[in-house]
């Protein structure tokens, strides 16, 4: 790093790379760049670690974990006898607080220091070519110049839809749901996607009376055999589901009660309303106008994560990159970190003038974003998916055959829990005879997913999958049942 004082009096620092946003993705890009021998500054306006660490993945999974463990114990008669009480809400929330590091980022700052990454606190804005101006909480400005690349890794925020009265009703977003210190008596959730479903599961288990309004149905992008099972379970747990309708007005009255009117005429009351209707990119103040893009838009990138203009070519001569939620390719922490690993190496290769391999599955290409994105939805029961559903494969023009099997019918499942209910399905590309998608729903299926992710990413021929023998008696035996249902080539 080189330090100078610029003509405006602001401190100017020169690095090889400047990363805006120290969420999981920005941190990993910076790490890769440093490991490649370049200098890097990371700019962060809130907490180092980003949404995932403090208000998303970690705290929400901590809210869900105790109830899942309790359900598992209660599904076995001998173990059930040892559990006599209910969930200790205070203990659940305290453990959640610990997983959110009590909303302090000292640990992650220490990691940056150790990795040799410079941290600049404040809001970063692209102010000129390869230049980022950072304004800290006291209004002081630092100018960072990048020799090689600027990376936007500013993530996303909850999107609040334009429903009359909603914004004035002090709605919760996923942040308040993840960090709440008390459990509301009545919680209304708007949105039946991943956040809505997971938070309905968590808060119902913590004792709230939960109402979920899902305009497009519950979890509309997963296979219906999976979303239907989760919907049934939520209902059995007392969650009121209002599917295929949406709020048309929301009001919080003087007593603090939130009143919602739905399109079908239903009226509802709640103590809090959680808005879980998707995300909006954090690009409003990042200086996109400096490179001819529109502030507030998602950033489109090529497979090497270079930001593209509307003509499909890299903006500003190719020094601007975007990774993680902000590029909208696959808004998940693990996928953003995958992009970050590829991007760190890409920037280093381009800086050193060494070859960049952006061919599909090449070292510098984030190909899995399009073909093999795994996700676990920590609902009750869990849903684990990778690659295509039958519907998304058809939309992509792939000729597929879908087969399903009852997961509860395999010996490992019967042993795992009494009354085990679950289902698995695989999507086979009929022209190439490889697996292009896999979905499984059932208690404790999350750890089954990586086998499917490997099969999809590696494009393992179906014929060879017969030689991947699942151990007996495990849940994985469903793989064999799926192959048998598909049938063996003569
Ligand atoms: C409730 C919830 C639960 C989730 N659970 C999971 C899960 O279980 N598994 C999973 O894989 N994914 C999960 N996700 C998604 C996951 O949180 C995101 O994919 C991930 O956080 C994206 O990482 P990122 O680094 O791109 O962005 P972020 O984590 O949003 O980090 C971006 C960082 O940039 C900073 N920033 C923004 N603008 C500026 C600026 N102008 N200057 C300086 N800094 C700036 C922000 O303060 C933030 O720290 C969940 C999301 C939500 C909402
Ligand atoms: N376990 C995980 O991996 C995990 C957990 C939570 C969140 N996430 C990620 O966080 C992101 C955000 O999740 P999300 O659930 O907010 O978004 P989402 O896009 O998954 O779901 C939003 C839902 O809101 C519904 N909706 C939109 N407008 C509505 C309206 N006016 N009224 C009623 N319903 C409406 C849509 O039908 C949609 O199903 C996703 O990318 C998700 O993958 C991941």
TrEMBL record:
Pfam families assigned to the protein according to its UniProt record, in alphabetical order: Pyr_redox_2, Pyr_redox_dim
Keyword Glycoprotein tagged: no
UniProt keyword terms in alphabetical order: FAD, Flavoprotein, NAD
NAD found in the keyword field: yes
Secretion signal, residue range per the UniProt entry: none
Cofactor: FAD
FAD/NAD(P)-binding domain residues: 15-336
Residue ranges constituting the Pyridine nucleotide-disulphide oxidoreductase dimerisation domain according to the UniProt record: 373-479
Family that this chain belongs to: Belongs to the class-I pyridine nucleotide-disulfide oxidoreductase family.
Protein name stated in the entry: NAD(P)/FAD-dependent oxidoreductase
């Amino acid at each position: 790093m080189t330090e100078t004082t610029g003509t405006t009096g602001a401190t100017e620092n020169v690095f090889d790379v400047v990363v805006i946003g120290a969420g999981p993705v920005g941190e990993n890009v910076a790490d890769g760049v440093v490991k490649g021998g370049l200098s890097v500054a990371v700019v962060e306006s809130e907490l180092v670690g980003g949404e995932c660490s403090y208000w998303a993945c970690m705290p929400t999974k901590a809210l869900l974990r105790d109830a899942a463990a309790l359900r598992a114990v209660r599904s076995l008669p001998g173990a059930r006898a040892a559990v006599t009480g209910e969930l200790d809400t205070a203990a659940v929330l305290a453990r959640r607080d610990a997983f959110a590091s009590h909303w302090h980022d000292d640990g992650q700052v220490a990691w940056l220091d150790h990795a040799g990454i410079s941290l600049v606190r404040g809001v970063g804005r692209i102010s000129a070519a390869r230049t980022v101006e950072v304004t800290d909480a006291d209004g002081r400005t630092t100018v960072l110049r990048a020799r090689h690349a600027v990376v936007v890794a500013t993530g996303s925020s909850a999107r609040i839809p334009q429903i009359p009265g909603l914004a004035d009703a002090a709605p919760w977003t996923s942040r308040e749901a993840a960090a709440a210190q008390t459990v509301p008596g009545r919680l209304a959730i708007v949105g039946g996607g991943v956040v809505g479903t997971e938070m309905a599961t968590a808060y119902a288990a913590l004792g709230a009376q939960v109402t979920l309004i899902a305009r497009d149905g519950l979890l509309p992008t997963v296979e219906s055999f999976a979303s239907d099972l989760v919907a049934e379970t939520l209902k059995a747990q007392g969650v009121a589901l209002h599917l295929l309708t949406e709020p048309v007005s929301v009001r919080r009255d003087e007593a603090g009660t939130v009143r919602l009117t739905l399109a079908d005429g239903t009226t509802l009351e709640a103590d809090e309303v959680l808005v879980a209707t998707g995300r909006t990119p954090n690009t409003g103040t990042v200086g996109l106008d400096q490179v001819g893009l529109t502030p507030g838009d998602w950033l489109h990138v090529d497979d090497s994560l270079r930001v593209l203009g509307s003509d499909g070519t890299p903006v500003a001569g190719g020094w601007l990159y975007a990774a993680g939620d902000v590029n909208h390719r696959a808004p998940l922490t693990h996928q953003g970190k995958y992009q970050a690993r590829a991007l760190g190496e890409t920037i280093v290769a381009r800086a050193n003038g060494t070859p960049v391999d952006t061919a599909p599955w090449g070292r510098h290409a984030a190909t899995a974003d399009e073909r093999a994105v795994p996700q676990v939805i920590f609902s009750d029961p869990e849903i684990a998916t990778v690659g295509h559903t039958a519907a998304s494969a058809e939309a992509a023009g792939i000729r597929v055959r879908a087969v399903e099997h009852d997961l509860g019918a395999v010996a490992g499942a019967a042993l795992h829990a009494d009354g085990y209910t679950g289902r698995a399905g695989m999507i086979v590309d009929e022209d190439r005879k490889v697996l292009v998608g896999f979905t499984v729903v059932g208690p404790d299926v999350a750890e089954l997913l990586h086998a499917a992710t490997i099969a999809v990413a590696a494009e393992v021929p179906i014929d060879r999958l017969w030689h991947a023998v699942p151990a007996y008696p495990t849940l994985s035996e469903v793989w064999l049942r799926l192959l048998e249902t598909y049938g063996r080539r003569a």
